[in-house]
TrEMBL record, chain B:
Keywords: Iron, Iron-sulfur, Metal-binding. Residues 19-67 form the 4Fe-4S ferredoxin-type domain. It comes from Chenggangzhangella methanolivorans. One of its GO terms (molecular function) is metal ion binding. The lineage of its organism: Bacteria, Pseudomonadati, Pseudomonadota, Alphaproteobacteria, Hyphomicrobiales. This is 4Fe-4S dicluster domain-containing protein. InterPro entries: 4Fe4S_Fe-S-bd, 4Fe4S_Fe_S_CS. SUPFAM superfamilies: 4Fe-4S ferredoxins. Pfam families: Fer4_7. Gene3D superfamilies: 3.30.70.20.
Length: 353, 77
C-alpha cells in the first residue's frame, strides 16, 4: 500500500528469515529458553554459534550447519533440571503459541528426552525482526508528507512490540501536529472509482483462478528462486514468472468476502515478491550474512554499498532504486564491537576437544 | 477456467451438542484472526469453513461452552 502511494522502502534485500520449529509456525524459542540454559545445538548436541539472537550472520551459521553433516539444528533442553523445564513449558505452551504443547505431544516430543528440531523459515519483509521496510525518519515520517509508518512494516530494525508501541506514540504525536496545520486534501473521484473497481474485480467473475492457488504459486516461486543463497539467474527467472502471474490477475475470482480478502492479500504478496527480487538484484554485493548472500557477488563492498537502498515507484509506475547515505551513528560503536557480528561461529567445536 | 471444490479434513472441531450459536453466539467467529469460522445458517452451529487455520486458539479459549477443539492440521502433525 505504501509503495503504491509512492513511499520509499529501505533495504528490502535484507530479508527476514528465522529459525522456527520444523513444521510448526512458531519460534523454537531460543529467546525464552536461553536465560534458563537452553541453547541451539547441532545433531551432536554441541553449540556451534556464540549467540542465539537472530541475525543474518546467525542464520548463515545455522544454514551452514544444516548443509553439513552436523544438521539438523535443534533447540536443546534435555540437560536442564525438571523444575526449569516445567517453567519453560508453562511459558511456551500457554503464552507465546498455546498450541505448541499439542504439536509436541502428537509427535511424542518431550523436552526432557529429545531436543526440538528447527528449520529455516520462508523469507519475509519485517523490520520488527530485521532491517527492511517502509523508510521512516526519527519522527516515523515516511517520504510522503502526512504518511507515517511504525511497527513491523517500518524501517526501524529489531523493534518488536516495544519498538512498535514507542514509535506508535512518536508517530501519533507528530501526525497530530502535522494535521493541525493542513486542510483535508482534495482527491480525484476518478481515481477512487478506478481503485474501487480494482478491489472488487475478483467478485465480478465466477470462472477463473482462486486466490489460494495464485498465492500458493507465488510463494512457491519465492521459495524456489528468491530464498538465499541468492543467484542472479534464478532471481531473473523469478521476475519473469511473477510477471506471468501478474497477467493472470485478470482471472482472479472471489466468491465471498473471505475470498476477496485473500484475493487482495495475494496481490500484496505478489508485489512483495517482485520487490524482494528487484531489491536483491540491485545490491551487487553480499551483506547481513544469510539475508543477502549473493553467490555471484560474495564480497561485502563497503566502498559502493555502505548505504541504504531505496526502492520506489517512479513517475512511470516502474519499480526504481536509489542509494541513500547512512546518517552518522548517534552512539559511536567501537570497531571491535562491529566485528563481533561476523564472529558468531564457536571457535573450538566441543567435539574436537 | 471453471472452479471445483475439494474435500479437506477440518482441524477445528465444534461439538454441536455444546455450541449455542442458535442463541446468537458468534464468539469464535468474531475472535478468529484468519476469518475461517462461520455459523451454518441451516443447523445454527459454528463450523470450520476454510482450511486456513493457524492453530492460534482464541476460538477454543473464548468459547463460553467449551465447544471448540483445535487440532494441529494433518499436514503438520
Ligand atoms: C510468533 C511470534 C512471536 C513473537 N514474540 C514476541 C515477543 O515475545 N516479544 C516481542 O516484543 N515481540 C514479539 N513478536 C513480534 C511482535 O509481535 C511484532 O513486532 C508486533 O506485533 C508488530 O506489531 P505491528 O502493529 O507493527 O504489526 P501487526 O501486529 O502485524 O499488525 C498489522 C495489522 O495490519 C493488518 N493489515 C495488513 N494488511 C492490511 C490491509 N491491506 N488493510 C488493512 N489492514 C491490514 C493486519 O491484519 C494486522 O492486524 C513476535 C512475533 C511473532 C510472529
Ligand atoms: S463460541 Fe462456542 S458456542 Fe459460540 S458459536 Fe462458537 S462454538 Fe458455538
Ligand atoms: S485456531 Fe486460530 S485460526 Fe484456527 S480457527 Fe481458531 S482462532 Fe481461527
Amino acid at each position: 500500500m505504501a509503495y503504491h502511494a509512492g513511499a520509499e522502502l529501505a533495504n528490502l534485500e535484507c530479508y527476514q528469515i528465522n529459525p522456527l520449529i520444523k513444521d510448526y509456525n512458531g519460534p523454537s524459542c531460543a529467546y525464552v529458553t536461553g536465560p534458563f540454559g537452553g541453547f541451539t545445538a547441532n545433531n551432536k548436541g554441541d553449540r556451534f554459534i556464540e549467540c542465539d539472537y537472530w541475525s543474518g550472520q546467525m542464520m548463515l551459521e545455522f544454514w551452514r550447519e544444516l548443509q553439513s553433516g552436523n544438521g539438523p539444528v535443534y533447540l536443546k533442553m534435555d540437560h536442564l533440571a525438571e523444575e526449569t523445564i516445567s517453567e519453560i513449558e508453562t511459558i511456551l505452551h500457554t503464552n507465546e503459541r498455546p498450541s505448541r504443547g499439542r504439536f509436541h505431544e502428537r509427535r511424542g516430543n518431550d523436552y526432557r528426552k529429545r531436543p526440538v528440531e528447527m528449520h529455516i523459515s520462508e523469507i519475509g519483509f519485517c523490520s520488527g525482526h530485521s532491517a527492511s521496510g517502509v523508510w521512516v525518519d526519527e519522527n516515523a515520517r515516511t517520504t510522503i508528507p502526512g504518511l507515517y509508518a511504525v511497527g513491523d512494516m517500518a524501517s526501524v530494525p529489531h523493534n518488536y512490540m516495544l519498538g512498535a508501541f514507542v514509535n506508535g506514540g512518536i508517530a501519533g504525536a507528530d501526525a497530530a501536529e502535522y494535521c493541525a496545520n493542513v486542510d483535508l486534501a482534495a482527491f480525484d473521484e476518478g481515481y477512487l472509482a478506478a481503485e474501487k473497481e480494482r478491489v472488487l474485480a475478483p467478485t465480478r467473475r465466477s470462472d477463473g483462478l482462486t486466490p489460494h492457488e495464485m498465492e500458493f504459486k507465488t510463494r512457491r516461486l519465492v521459495n524456489d528462486y528468491l530464498e538465499p543463497p541468492k543467484v542472479t539467474a534464478k532471481m531473473e527467472i523469478a521476475q519473469r514468472r511473477f510477471a506471468e502471474i501478474r497477467e493472470d490477475l485478470n482471472e482472479l475470482c472471489a466468491s465471498d468476502p473471505h475470498e476477496l480478502l485473500r484475493a487482495l492479500e495475494m496481490q500484496t504478496i505478489l508485489d512483495c515478491a517482485d520487490m524482494a527480487a528487484a531489491a536483491s538484484l540491485y545490491r551487487t554485493e553480499s551483506r547481513w550474512g544469510f539475508y543477502h548472500l549473493r553467490v555471484d557477488h560474495p564480497q561485502t563492498d563497503d566502498e559502493n554499498w555502505y548505504c541504504h537502498t531505496m526502492l520506489y515507484k517512479d513517475e512511470n509506475g516502474r519499480m526504481s532504486h536509489r542509494k541513500r547515505e547512512i546518517d552518522p551513528y548517534v552512539v559511536p560503536v567501537e570497531a571491535e564491537e562491529m566485528a563481533a557480528y561476523h564472529q558468531l561461529r564457536v571457535k573450538t567445536p566441543q567435539a574436537a576437544e | 477456467m471453471p472452479i471445483i471444490t475439494q474435500s479437506k479434513s477440518a482441524a477445528v472441531v465444534i461439538d454441536d451438542a455444546k455450541c449455542i450459536a442458535e442463541k446468537g453466539c458468534t464468539v469464535c467467529v468474531d475472535v478468529c484472526p484468519l476469518d475461517i469460522l462461520a455459523i451454518d445458517e441451516g443447523r445454527k452451529k459454528a463450523f470450520m469453513k476454510y482450511d486456513e487455520c493457524w492453530y492460534c486458539m482464541p476460538c477454543e479459549a473464548d468459547c463460553p461452552t467449551g465447544a471448540v477443539k483445535v487440532n494441529i492440521p494433518y499436514l503438520l502433525r
